[in-house]
């Protein structure tokens, strides 16, 4: 198979979808790999390293899309890329279709096969290609939230860990999944007073067992959220419904109940966000203020730490990418139900329930026998 790795063109996105080590695995199995010039430099990988691993370097993004049967990316295609994607071309990346109707419609129109990292799912319900970036984003949410609390950035001027004689800051985390758990670990490590909420009592029991003593678990409901936001310094939105829009937990009206300078970090913003007033921002301009509340809503948080993020992501994606390259997407998805769950759109058909529901589109069920003829 011919694999293309374009340079990411989303604002301040420095990750790359395939490392030189991954290229070596691909070329060692007889596949051709074309990497765009400087695609890996943001993550610390030079063109020379890719060439040594067996890749060919192409000057432009147009050349990469034109030659490739499978495109490997990190973030969803943006408007400039829509017209480059071809019918029957396999695009393997994060898509987050439920947060973008224009992207969804463009990919339906393209006739491409869109296999989304974020909905590849194991039998136990875990999301192996989302977990590594959720781990990075969860840890970064506290790092960025702590910075945004500083007064020059219009925060409350609170040091999360406090100092002797001064109480620590208060952190409220909405969601006890991978993002929330990693955020709680980081905030607790800084010495903050942490509350983590979830709707699952078994999950709260599990979190109570594994997290430090300065983390309190609490059932997530509107009453409890309204109570806790009143004196929280940092609030982290960490909820996820795979492939679908995130549920709305904090409304605009609720901002009035918070203290001026409170910081909101919505890690779910790339799935529509769980805070009504959050809209996607970039690393270049990461925050904005509404009703004296600081909003941090960067949609590609791990892109700020590309070396760590690229290695973490490609450790997870490469085994699946090799299956797709070795067998073709139909056979790979027929034989591996985890990959089949990643199929969101193929040949103009919506195949994932969350995407269909988000934009009121017809859902086409993927049956085993259909995978060979789609």
Automatic annotation (TrEMBL):
This is Alanine dehydrogenase. It comes from Niabella yanshanensis. It holds the Pfam family AlaDh_PNT_C. The lineage of its organism: Bacteria, Pseudomonadati, Bacteroidota, Chitinophagia, Chitinophagales. It is an enzyme of class 1 (oxidoreductase). Its EC number is 1.4.1.1. InterPro entries: Ala_DH, Ala_DH/PNT_CS2, AlaDH/PNT_N, AlaDH/PNT_NAD(H)-bd, NAD(P)-bd_dom_sf. PROSITE patterns: ALADH_PNT_2. PANTHER family: ALANINE DEHYDROGENASE (PTHR42795:SF1). Keywords: NAD, Oxidoreductase. Belongs to the AlaDH/PNT family. Gene3D superfamilies: NAD(P)-binding Rossmann-like Domain.
